Amino acid sequence: MDKFPSRARATAAALEPRVSAVVAVRGVGPGGWTALELCLRSALAEPWIDDVVIVDQGNAPSISSSLRALQLDRRDVLVASAHANAGYAAAANLGAAKARGRWLLFLDPDVVLQRGGRQVAVPMPARLITNDSGAVLAAGLDGLGIVQIAEFVAAHHLASGALLRVLPAWQCPALPLHLLTPGTRHRPARVQVFIDWVQGVLARRLAG
């Protein structure tokens, strides 16, 4: 999520830190610290995450104390308290308001960020869902938020600086690209020429 609207990008680009992780910790009991600490330590270990904002909401006293101790131990950790009866959206909004980064990564407290080829699932509520790559590209250029798009589609805009690569050390699973034609037995020569041309174009784009 881009915390700043497009009009503020020129001044916001110089702000540091760049990426803030927001973790809303809600209703965790006394025995929940081990799993929660794994989530927080994994976020703090990532070099692209500059600070972590933890929203303490209705947790056991021992959990709240541990969160405060972590804040005292780390300059890149901020703990904010939310009312126990407030919903998740209120907690997330409080964390976003306290965050210093331009980009916000919202983490559930049971998510552990990992590398080394392992798959990590992070819930990302979508503001726009479409299968039109042109619409996705336009949304990214208009500053509506983070978009997922084929690299060869965005290559020109990445090179010009109109788009910025987010989380470069992480990659989403590759999406298949299919070209449907009649069976090869009666395929017209012009169709085969088109298939060969498309394969060559994509090979050059993906290689560059």
Short précis:
With 208 residues, this protein is an alpha/beta fold. 38% of the residues lie in helices and 12% in strands.
Shape descriptor reads elongated
Q: Quickly count the helices.
A: 7
**Element-by-element helix/strand order:** HEHEHEHEHHH
Helix content: 25-40%
The biggest beta sheet, please? 4 strands, parallel
In terms of DSSP E residues, the strand content is 5-15%
Distance between the termini: 28 Å
Class by SSE composition: alpha/beta
Number of strands: 4
* Largest beta sheet: strand ordering: 3-2-1-4
Mean pLDDT across every amino acid position: 81
Name the poorly predicted regions.
7-13
- Rg computed from alpha carbons, rounded to a whole number of angstroms: 22 Å
